[in-house]
Specification:
23% helix, single chain, 171 residues, two-stranded antiparallel sheet, 29% strand, 5 helices, alpha+beta, globular
Length: 171
């Protein structure tokens, strides 16, 4: 279940994180989570980082749960890393057994692109788009020697519709 911290709680975390200095300072400038990690690494107690977040401050995004739809799977991008690999909201335990080894998979949205369901980046032919298990427990879209984010026009929250291009259907 995905939840997004409301804007007020997020601003509060950033205000408290600004006090980090020294070796941890680059983490603060780069990423809000890095700031929290840095403060914890410096020995600060977790309860000092922010006030308790009320349940009313959490929002569930409509796109946080993937779904099967006629002829395919509707997923969304959770994250795009610095290499352009796009983590989808398809958890490996549920979705990889349904997609592993299937021929004829394709991405139908945001643009049509054949997909190769493979176990590792190393077996993905150069320039081809792959669907593979990522290290965070979710399936990823990746391009060998390229960026899936740039090639497919994806960003966090983007819809990614996976279909079976051949008549065997999904899943």
């Amino acid at each position: 279940q995905a939840a997004i911290v409301g804007r007020d709680a997020q601003q509060q975390l950033h205000r408290r994180a600004r006090g980090v200095a020294g070796d941890a300072a680059p983490l603060v400038q780069q990423h809000g989570c890095g700031a929290v990690a840095a403060r914890l690494a410096l020995g600060e107690a977790p309860e000092t980082l922010a006030d308790r977040i009320r349940h009313e401050g959490l929002l569930r995004a409509q796109w946080s749960a993937p779904r099967e739809a006629p002829g395919g799977i509707v997923a969304h991008v959770l994250h795009a890393d610095r290499f352009g690999n796009c983590t989808l909201n398809l958890d490996i335990d549920t979705w990889w057994p349904k997609l592993r080894g299937r021929d004829g998979l394709a991405l139908a949205h945001p643009r049509h692109e054949p997909l190769i369901a493979c176990e590792t980046y190393g077996v993905l032919p150069g320039g081809r788009v792959g669907l593979l298990p990522g290290s965070q427990g979710f399936l990823e879209l990746a391009v060998n020697r390229g960026s899936a984010k740039a090639r497919l026009g994806l960003s966090p929250g983007s819809l990614a519709r996976i279909v079976q291009a051949e008549p065997q259907g999904l899943p």
